Amino acid sequence: MKSLMGKLFVFTALMVILSMVILGGGIFPQLRNTVLLEKQQNMTRTAKQVGGMTTELLGNYNYIQERNYRFMLENLTEDGRNHILVCDSDGQVLISSDESFGAYLGAVIPSEVQKELLQTGSYNGVGNLGGLYRGTNYTAGEVYRNPDGEVAGFVLVTSSVEHVTRVVGEIQSTFYFWMILIVLFIAILAYCISRTLTRPVKRMASAAREFAHGKYTTRVPVTTRDEIGELTVAFNNMADSIEKSEELRRGFVANVSHELRSPMTSIAGFVDGILDGTIPPEQQEKYLTIISSEVRRLSRLVSRMLDITRMQASDPTENGVRFDLCEVVRRAVLAFEARLEEKTLVLDVKLPAEELFLFGNEDALYQVVYNLVDNAVKFSDEERVITISVVARGRDAEFSISNFGPTIPPEELPFVFDRFHKTDRSRSEQTGLGLGLYIVKTTVNQHKGDIGVMSENGKTTFWFRVPMMRVSRNEQAGGTKHE
C-alpha cells in the first residue's frame, strides 16, 4: 500500500483488532474460571442450606414430608439450572428436586463420593456420578445429620457443564459483537482522521509539483493548528522564500545582462567605427580611451561577481583569525587622506581605549569599513565633517559612520543593500556597479552581524554590529588563550 492514508488506516485497524484479540485471550479464561468458581460456591451454599433444612425437619417430625420438602427444593434449584439429590446414609437417592428425575430414585451414588463426604463432610467434583448422568456435571455435596448428631445422609447439588459453557459462550458472543462494532467504528474514524491528516500533505505534494513547473505562487491553505498546521506554515514560508529567490534571480540576471550589454554595445560601436573609417584618425585616441574605460568597467563587474560567488560559498569563520576592529578602522581611514584633502573634509574618528577583538576574515571586514568610508566621502558635501565611531554594545562591537549630503529617500532605504541597486540619490555608487553595499551586507551577515542605514535632513548614517570575542583573564594579563 503506497498511500500514507492507507497505511495509517490499515495500521490503526490492525492495532485495534490485535488489541481486542489479546484482550479476549486474557479475559475469557479468567472469566470461565470466575464463573465456575462462583457456580461452585453457590452450589455449596445450596447443599449446606438443604442439609440444614433436612436436619431440622428430621428433628421436628422424625419423618420427611415429601411434597412440601420437594417444593422447597425446587425453589433452591435456580430456575432449574441445578439438580438436588437427597440420599440416605448408604448413598441411595431418596428425593429428587424435579419429578422428571424420578428415574434417579433408588440409585446409589459412587462409594468414593460417599467416602469423601464421610471423611470431610463436603464434596466438590466434576463427573457423571458413576453413570447417573449422561453428561459431565459439576457436583457439590454436604452431609446432614439426625437429632443425635449422627450422619443421616447426603445432599448433592449438581449442574451441567454445558450450562457454565453456555454462559461463557453468551458473554463471548456479546464481546465479539461489540468488538466488531468497535472495529467498524474505529475503522471509519481512522479513515476520516487519516484523510484529514494526509490532505495537507497531498496539497503540499501538489504544490511542490507546481513549483517544479515554475508556478511559484501556489500556497497550501492552513486548516489546523497542530503539527500538520505548523508544517503547512513552514511549507508556505519556504514557498515565499523560493518565490522571492526566483524574483531576485530573474532581477539579477536582468541587471547583469544590462550591465554587460551597455559597455559591450559601446565597445562594439566604437571598434566598428574605427575599423570602417567612420571615426577619423585624429579622434581614434579619444574613443580608444572610452573603450579602455568600458573594458575596465567590465573587468570590475566580473571581479565583483566572482567575489560575491566566493563569499557565498565560504565560511569566514572557518579559517578566521582574531583581530582588533579599531586597528582595522585606523588602517582603512589612512587610505583616504588625499581624497579628504581634495574635498576639504574633516574626519572625526572616535575609538575606545580598549581593544575590541573580533573573529573572522580580517581582510573582508577591512573591505567593509573601506567601502563605507568610500561611500561617505563620495557622497559628502565639501567642507563638512564625517564622523566615525566604534563602541562596544553588550557582546557586540558597533561601527557607525555619518556624513552630510544628499538624503536617501525613505522609499529607497529598504533597497540600498540590494544587488545592482543604483539611484542618483542613493548611497550606492553613482558611476559604479551597484554591488559594493551588497558585498558589505553579505560580509557582515556571514560574521553573524547586522547592518542598517538611516538618512534624514541631509545626515546619513551607516552602521553594523558584529559579535565580539570573549577575552580570557590570561589573555588580558598578556597570555594567548581566548574563550
Short précis:
With 483 residues, the chain is α+β, with helices and mostly antiparallel strands.
General description of the model:
This protein has 483 residues and is an alpha+beta fold. It folds into 3 domains: 4-166, PAS domain (Beta-Lactamase, 2-Layer Sandwich), CATH 3.30.450.20; 227-313, Orthogonal Bundle (Helix Hairpins), CATH 1.10.287.130; 321-476, 2-Layer Sandwich (Heat Shock Protein 90). The chain contains 11 helices and 12 strands. The strands form 3 sheets. Strands 2-1-5-4-3 form a 5-stranded antiparallel sheet, with helices on both faces. The chain has a 5-stranded mixed sheet with strand order 7-9-10-12-11, with helices on one face. Helix 7 packs across helix 9 (362-379) and helix 9 (362-379) packs antiparallel against helix 10.
Show the helix and strand layout:
Elements: H1 4-61, H2 66-75, E1 83-88, E2 93-96, H3 111-120, E3 122-127, E4 137-145, E5 151-160, H4 161-212, H5 227-275, H6 281-313, E6 321-324, H7 325-334, H8 337-342, E7 346-350, E8 357-360, H9 362-379, E9 385-393, E10 396-404, H10 436-446, E11 450-456, E12 459-467, H11 473-476
Parallel strand pairs: 7-9
Antiparallel strand pairs: 1-2, 1-5, 3-4, 4-5, 6-8, 9-10, 10-12, 11-12
Helix pairs in contact: 1-4, 4-5, 5-6, 6-10, 7-9, 9-10
